[in-house]
Amino acid sequence: MDLIFSILTLIGSIGLFLYGMMKMSDALQKTAGEKMRNVLASMTSNPLKRILTGALITSVIQSSSATTVMIVSFVNAGLMTLTQSVGVIMGANIGTTATAWIISLLGFKADIATLALPIIAFGVPMMMLKSKRRKTMGELLIGFALLFLGLAFMKNNMPDLGSNPQIMEFLKNYTDGGMLSVLLFVAVGTILTMIIQSSSATVALTLIMCANGWISFELAAAMVLGENIGTTITANMAAMVANVSARRAALAHTVFNIFGVVWVLILYHPFLDLVAYVSNLVGAGDPLQARTAIDVTISLSLFHSMFNIINTFILVWFTKYIVKIVTKLIKQKDTGEEIFRLRYITTGMMSTAALSLQQAKLEISHYAKRCTRMFSIVREMFYENAPEKFSEQFTRIEKYEDISDRIEVEIANYISKVSEGDLSELNVHRVQGMYKIIDEIESIADSAYNLARTLKRKNENKIEFDAALTKDLNNMFDIVQKALEIMNSNLEKGFAQIKDIHNAYECEKDINVKRSQLRDKHILNIENGKYSYLAGTVYTDLINEAEKLGDYIINVSEAIFEISQRNEI
Question: What is the pTM for the complete model shown?
Answer without folding.
Answer: 0.51
